[in-house]
Amino acid sequence: MNDVLAAALSRAAGHQRRFEPRLAAHFDALADPAAGGGPELPGRGRFPARALELLRELSLRGGKRLRVALLHEAAALVTAGPVPGLDAAALSVELLHTHGLVHDDLIDDAPLRRGGPSTYYAYLAEFPDRPDTARALTVLAGDLAAFLAVRVLLGPGGPPPERALAMAAVVADAGAAAVGGQLLDLERDFPPLPDTAFLHEVTAYKSTGYSVLAPLRLGLLAAGADPAPYDRELRGYAEAVGVANQIHDDLLDLFGDQDALGKPLGTDLRAGRRSYLLLALEAAGIDPAGRTPDGLRARARAAGVEDALRAEAARHARRAADLAAGWEGRWRTEAVAFFTHLPAWSVTRDH
User: Fold this and answer.
1) What's this model's pTM, rounded to 2 decimal places?
2) Which residues does UniProt call coiled coil (predicted)?
3) Of 48, 165, 200, 311, most Cβ neighbours within 10 A?
4) Superfamily for 3-346?
């Protein structure tokens, strides 16, 4: 790892350390009506409090907090000083991410997330004889996280009023795009077999929009800059990083370490998902059906599937780095360096 990349990762780790207690404090305030931390939730019954508790557990259980780092560094492109409302924006993008995780695990029938039970399986354990109730509660918990993501930008501690509505619109647009991407994601598992361009579009809408592009826009807006004149290049950077990330995620589904990932290997393959990995296996003439994970991994490696996927992910990462390097001279050097070197990490991580 070169020194510049190490410095970028150190900056990202610093953002993560500072954010964790703020996220915990936000959930504590939400659970305490007297704190005025958000919308008033019902005081009666067990279910509203339990939904908030499960959202808290999932949100605090782990995660790379890449969205938080991107948000802070996007603001740092403009200024080195403190930025009002940036903490609220960080809470917003992470709450929107929690919403996505809750619903994604329900759709995929995934038992684990971040080394613990998914929200859906937590509810199934509580209501083993009432799966319909477990599903309904999971949907509602995910919906709650989405509304909280917008609300945090419009309440106390949020950005200045002249920026709050624009920032809330970014989050609402990103959430709507992610739902559209999830719909497209389900469609890819129906004939005809999707091509790479189809998978790129799924990635752009389902995850890249709220994980990369929205934090970039939010950070610039919070710092007082209008992102609109730079939207095309910001989108290009986000999409390149997003595709690199997704190809690497698909690769880890077969070639990763289960303990590091916090979930079983081969989940998408067993479900027959039309992923970048599956397309690469098909291109190599390998049918994953009936193979053990170890056997499939050995066969795929021998056929060069792992190397091909790593090379393709690295190609998109280099494109993102080249785009960010072009920001030098317009924006602050230290933050530009962060965005230039971050894509290299996205295709070498183990989780």
Assistant:
1) 0.90
2) none
3) 200
4) Farnesyl Diphosphate Synthase (1.10.600.10)
